[in-house]
Specification:
469 residues; mainly beta; 24-stranded mixed beta sheet; 28 strands; 12% helix; LRR_dom_sf; signal
């Protein structure tokens, strides 16, 4: 056996699993249980703990009864699942895989055929989801001898599942797909084109409480009405890692370690990026967030109203030009734009570029308006520090285009705390209360009916008299 033959043999062993193939014979035997549902069809449950523990299951070829409605496989140590098509006319409406330690998707050179709804819950390990594991049937060139089920694959739900790699084209559903849901899913890597969906307007995409190490270039391509990412941890979102066209895009309460240039490539009517923690944002990270329509509204594009809201986020390290969306496109349509109440790491090295037009990137003249909003204290963007300071204070750390080594945020905080300390003076019948605000110099009013006006020097005189007497 030469080297190449040995290598092929080892690959075959790696992708093969010597389990026991399961066939249905009758209910209440060999791990199978049957239930008649309200539609007078049969729901079948296979429990590995009552049959064979390590199994191979061809869910379209296991001699199921003709009136089967759903199949559930549960409590297995190792389950090898084959989704190849079949000539058996046994269309099921739902496949559920529950409580599995190790799940293997067989790599077979056949078209896959899945029921309308597929559910995976409590799966401890999936080494890989191979290409074409979750594909809709393309009827124009479907394999001869395969029964084409009346309803296409439309819904997939993953709950509490650990996956090493989602390979390219593992999920491809481009015909009126409905619901895609990942909740509590841990994934090391989603490869380029790993998930591609075109959803109907009643469906939705959600990814919640997930931990994902790497989203490769164009890992997620989504065309749909509503897309939600919430409470996830992303180590790395590559350029165009999240890509698509949608009416509503929600990215909320996520932790992102590194956001690469053009990480979000989104055409959206309403874009909400709220309450996230971004550890490192590279230049142009948000620049491909643009106004767009999922369908023709029948109205002039210029009369539509778009929303872009980037608020209440915590930003640590931000490279030059990392904060603006596709502002030039937003300027050409009616937009409710908000960049507000964000907390940003304030240092000269981190934010000094904000005070140099050259640091804002190309089309600086048009983007300038956006960065004026970032620095406008009315929008409440503050330093992420125990001392409450607006982002604009970073300008005090710069002189002649260079960072001052002797001016830090702590220094500015200490200076402002001293400057805003209230000085109170009081005495009965002839009592007065004086408040001095050095940051707003001028005349100061003494409380009381006399409405006496004192300037700063007069005020110090009053304080001195009170101290002496």
């Amino acid at each position: 056996m030469n080297f190449h033959q040995l290598l092929l043999f080892l690959i075959f062993l790696k992708n093969s699993y010597a389990g026991t193939r399961v066939y249905f014979k009758q209910c209440a035997k060999n791990g199978f249980t049957c239930f008649t549902n309200s539609n007078k069809k049969v729901d079948i449950v296979y429990d590995c703990s009552k049959g064979v523990d390590d199994v191979i299951f061809f869910h379209n070829q296991f001699s199921a009864p003709s009136n089967i409605d759903s199949l559930k496989i549960q409590n297995c140590n190792t389950l090898s699942l084959a989704t190849r098509c079949s000539g058996e006319m046994r269309p099921i409406s739902k496949l559920e895989i529950y409580n599995i330690k190790n799940l293997i998707f067989q790599r077979l050179q056949y078209d896959s055929m899945l029921p309308p709804t597929v559910i995976f819950e409590n799966v401890s390990n999936i080494d890989s989801i191979p290409t074409k594991s979750f594909n809709q049937i393309i009827k124009s060139y479907y394999s001869v001898g395969c029964y084409v089920q009346p309803k296409d694959f439309q819904n997939v739900y993953f709950r509490n599942v650990t996956i090493d790699t989602i390979q390219s084209d593992a999920f491809v559903a481009l015909n009126q797909f409905k619901n895609f849901s990942f909740i509590g899913v841990n994934i090391k890597r989603i490869q380029t084109h790993g998930i591609r969906l075109m959803q109907d307007f009643k469906g939705g995409f959600e990814m919640k409480n997930c931990v994902i190490d790497t989203l490769e270039y164009m890992a997620l391509q989504i065309y749909g009405k509503r897309t939600i990412f919430a409470d996830n941890h992303f180590s790395k979102i590559s350029s165009s890692g999240i890509n698509g066209t949608m009416e509503d895009f929600y990215f909320t309460d996520n932790f992102v370690e590194t956001l690469y240039p053009l990480a979000f490539s989104i055409l959206g009517t309403n874009i909400f990026i709220l309450q996230n923690n971004f550890l490192y944002m590279k230049s142009s990270a948000l620049e491909s967030l643009s106004p767009g329509l999922i369908q023709d509204s029948g109205r002039n594009f210029g009369k539509l109203r778009f929303v872009y809201d980037f608020s209440k986020n915590t930003l640590s390290f931000t490279e030059a030009g990392s904060l603006h969306p596709d502002y030039v496109s937003y300027e050409n349509v009616q937009t409710e734009m908000m960049f507000s109440r964000n907390k940003i790491l304030c240092s000269c090295d981190n934010l000094g570029w904000l005070f140099s037009p050259l640091g804002h990137g190309p089309n600086t003249a048009q983007i300038e308006t956006f960065y004026e909003m970032v620095l406008d204290e009315a929008y409440g963007n503050e330093c992420d520090h125990t001392c409450k300071l607006p982002v604009r204070v970073v300008e005090e750390m710069i002189e002649c285009g260079k960072c001052l080594s002797n001016v830090s945020l702590e220094y500015i905080c200490d200076k402002n705390n001293k400057a805003t300390t209230a000085i109170a003076v009081g005495f009965n019948d002839s009592e007065i209360f004086v408040t001095r605000e050095v940051l707003n110099p001028g005349n100061y009013t003494i409380g009381g009916s006399s409405k006496v006006e004192l300037n700063v020097l007069d005020m110090f005189g009053v304080v001195l008299c009170w101290w002496l007497f």
